[in-house]
Amino acid sequence: MKPFYKSIILGTALAGMLSSCNDFLTVDPVDKLTQDNFYTSDERVRANTMALYAAVTWDQFAHDFQWKFDMLSGDMFYTYSAEGQWYFGTYTSVNQYINQGWEGLYNVISFCNSVIHDMPGKCKNGVSDAAILQAQAEARCIRAYCYYLLTEAWTNVPVVENNSENITANNLQLPPATQKSIYQFAMADADFAVNNLPMTDGDAYRATRLTALAVRAKLALTMASHTDYGYDRNALFT
Length: 238
Fold this sequence. Notes:
By secondary structure, the chain is mainly alpha-helical. The protein contains 12 helices and no strands. Helix 8 (about 130-155) runs parallel beside helix 11 (about 210-225) and helix 10 (about 180-195) runs antiparallel to helix 11 (about 210-225). The protein is globular, with a radius of gyration of 25 Å.
């Protein structure tokens, strides 16, 4: 058979296939599912909150900042380049790891804020109120921990409570909040998590009420150590 006729036969066959596959050709793109059609069950809400614990979400903070902030600022001898600045307690303005720690924690906070504020409005029939509440409580537990770390490292920092709202209002230059108010904001998140998380969870990595109690205890002890913020220190220690 000549190539010319082969082309005609192939073209006719493809046309027949295409005419019978309209459903296939008009399937909604997968990327639309994230916003409009994804949250249709409790399982999908839990699938989304897995991102709160993912290595990629925490990479900038955990890989590039946390061990320096923890070990090197203690008594671990280390003199190499910008990393060694933690040992000596003197930092230059071009220390890339400081910037990565800052961006890394706010990146985690942006994920938390999306779960807290954006996700509930996208949930369809089939998603229970309990699943939404637990997801928000997990996010607020993690957000409390992030703001605790931010204010311990930088003292006064901006509080980003709702990324989407700030972007819509073009409110992109937030002033730093005081450490006193940041502790209180984080404590409110921790309290919410304590009151709305289950004691245990089938996924071992997820925040539970015990996790939230630990975050709350860390906050309370730190707040109680401040004598100049007007806190009820006895109540915090209790």
